[in-house]
Amino acid sequence: MMHKSFLRVTAALLLICISAGAVREQQAEELGTQDAIELCGPPDASALEMLDKDCPAINESDKAEPALTVTATKRQLNYRKYKLPELRLYICHPNAARLGLLITHLGVEEIRSTERMAEVASKLLENKLWKAKQSAVGKAFANYKVWKGTRTDTNRALLWVLDRDGNLVIAPELQGTLHKHGDLTPGSSPVDRPELGEAQMLSPVCCCSKMTGEENTCKYTNVTEAPEKYCCKLRVGGCPLLSRYSRMDGRCGELQSELFEHRVSGLYRGLARAGGEIRFPDGGGSPWVHDKSGYSLSRVEPESLREAGGSYDQAKLKDASQSAPLGACAMSRLRSYWNSLGWPVDSLTFAAVSFPEGKEVMTHA
């Protein structure tokens, strides 16, 4: 009898686990949030036509400037995988299934209205969307770039990539680690998307710090569990390692929705159309949107890296010829494209970047 009871309990537990897994997989399918390409849905043909349209030559003797076509890049890391950063913003292409998705320390938010998108844009262009302060390491890194001549400001930079389907992906450059543009669009090869892996659930964790008798203010969430008081905050990716804050579930109130992701990393920078940075001048003024990225400066025709059957040929990457870098025409077109997504481009300065004699030079679009 006892043996039969044990079998029944075991079978019931197994059924519960299978059911929970099925529900989670169903939620993943419903959210469709494997990466920006699944999240936003099939691309808009008219938008792609506009991005692909040739840029005219400035002078008759000049070659036509490259357009915002799909590209691979010769810039690749050899010491780590590219992986989607925890904090990021997806802005979907025109006529997409969704407007976008915002991931902050508070969790995951689907942007459902143009009004909310305008609020997100306003915060981002004030460099306050993710509310993180410039760390000492980040400041030192920025000062080093200024000293080297490859940068002209010391504020926190944001990375942006225009992906294969015309979706914009934006993220802080420094998030505990220094992110590269390939982290926003990783690939299993330079010409392929990331491989489909097991679903990873991205959700915020409640991190709390016990308040001492001298502490009366908490800029996050005050939690009282007599006789103790805690200051609690939500963080995506877990609590900081070197911090007074530790995980205490259930003390931060209702969590925002979770995000299931299947395509999160790859050994290579995958395909994209362009990339660059959003930078904020030290003296104030309009933020700069420029194209300092391998997707703009080290472009490679994807087909030149494929075998006759269409598969990636690693031997071809080293000797692949680079296409011309993006120029003012492409960045002007990017301005128009951002405008079509409802962003206030009048408050932005778009520019193509170049490095004559190793020094950063901006050409206004």
Verbal overview:
This protein is an alpha+beta fold and 365 residues long. It has two domains: 36-201 and 259-364, no CATH class; 204-212 and 220-254, no CATH class. Helix content is 26%, strand content 23%. It has nine helices and 21 strands. It has helices at 2-31, 36-40, 45-52, 114-125, 136-148, 181-184, 294-297, 315-319, 328-340, and strands spanning 72-73, 82-83, 88-91, 100-104, 107-111, 158-162, 168-172, 186-187, 200-202, 204-210, 221-225, 228-236, 246-247, 259-261, 265-266, 268-269, 274-279, 288-290, 299-300, 349-354, 361-364. It has a nine-stranded mixed sheet. It has a four-stranded antiparallel sheet with strand order 11-12-10-13, with no helix packed on it. Strand 4 and strand 5 form a beta hairpin. The radius of gyration is 23 Å and the shape is globular. The protein starts with a helix and ends with a strand. The model is unreliable at 9-33 (pLDDT under 50).
Structural class: alpha+beta
Task: Estimate the helix proportion, in percent.
Answer: 25-40%
What is the string of helix and strand elements?
Answer: HHHEEEEEHHEEHEEEEEEEEEEEHEHHEE
The tally of helices reads 9
What is the averaged pLDDT score? 82
Radius of gyration, taken over Cα atoms and rounded to an integer in Å = 23 Å
What is this structure's SSE topology?
Blueprint: H1 2-31, H2 36-40, H3 45-52, E1 72-73, E2 82-83, E3 88-91, E4 100-104, E5 107-111, H4 114-125, H5 136-148, E6 158-162, E7 168-172, H6 181-184, E8 186-187, E9 200-202, E10 204-210, E11 221-225, E12 228-236, E13 246-247, E14 259-261, E15 265-266, E16 268-269, E17 274-279, E18 288-290, H7 294-297, E19 299-300, H8 315-319, H9 328-340, E20 349-354, E21 361-364
